[in-house]
Amino acid sequence: MAAVFKKKREIDYSIGVVSLFIYSFFIATTKSLDILLVIPIIAQILLFKVKIKKVFKKVLKVNFFIFITFLILFLEGKHELAILVFVRANLILWFTLSFDFDGFKLYKGLTNLRVSNKFSLILFFTVKYIEVLFSSAFRMLEVFKIRGFKATVSKKTFSIYADMLAFLLYTSVNKMEKVEDVITIRTKDGQLAPSKSIIVKKEEVVLLSIIIGVICVYYFK
């Protein structure tokens, strides 16, 4: 697996994938909040000139679902856990969206790392399914707004959301089955893209080093 350094080029998503997995695993396993958790995100913003406003809008849209989880835990009296889950989810979400990942970019990154094609496809379909699910959900919520629907804490509102979720899951599965059929027909051995040499950028190495450094300080301070 060759690695080449270049000054000007697009982000190599293979290194992004490694950074994302390490950071996400670290955040997901933390049992308490610490200012150190934000350092990799600040580094990512500075190193890759992340458009904060653009990423913030994306994070805000997805937070509808995160907030529901937060609210359920909070109402159950698990206040500390609710805050921890809310913060962890948003840190991982911000870090991921700042890389502007989608299913295909994730697949390419894993393929370049020589990860099993089957495993890469599983992640591709998982991310693609989530993309389709959220896209359909946002469109449906917009339709609800146009028709004058107002969410209230009532049995009727929860019933409508339950029906919406069931419909979304059904339509999303159907769409993904069509995607799978297209991939089977148009690709050889189910491989979406050939593996290529990883082109390493200095900024990516710095970000990865910062993440590892933060993990070490967090656990050994």
Count of DSSP strands: 2
Number of helices: 8
Average of pLDDT: 77
- Give the proportion of residues in helices: over 70%
**Count of discrete structural domains:** 2
In sequence order, what are the helices and strands, one letter per element?
Answer: EHHHHHHHEH
Oligomer: single chain
User: Which segments are poorly predicted (pLDDT under 50) over 5 or more consecutive residues?
Assistant: 4-9
Structural class: mainly alpha
- Give the C-alpha Rg: 20 Å
Largest pleated sheet: 2 strands, parallel
Task: Describe the protein in words.
The chain has 221 residues and is an all-alpha fold. It folds into 2 domains: 1-114 and 196-221, no CATH class; 115-194, no CATH class. The protein has helices spanning 13-29, 39-48, 52-75, 79-98, 103-112, 117-146, 155-186, 202-220, and strands at 3-5, 198-200. It has a two-stranded parallel ribbon with strand order 1-2. Helix 2 packs parallel to helix 4 (79-98), helix 5 (103-112) runs antiparallel to helix 6 (117-146) and helix 6 crosses helix 7 (155-186). The chain is globular, with a radius of gyration of 20 Å.
Summarize the model shown.
This protein is an all-alpha fold. The chain has helices at 13-29, 39-48, 52-75, 79-98, 103-112, 117-146, 155-186, 202-220; strands at residues 3-5, 198-200.
Keywords:
single chain, globular, 2 domains, two-stranded parallel sheet, 221 residues, 2 strands, mainly alpha
Secondary-structure map with pairings?
Elements: E1 3-5, H1 13-29, H2 39-48, H3 52-75, H4 79-98, H5 103-112, H6 117-146, H7 155-186, E2 198-200, H8 202-220
Helix pairs in contact: 1-4, 1-5, 1-8, 2-4, 2-8, 3-4, 5-6, 6-7
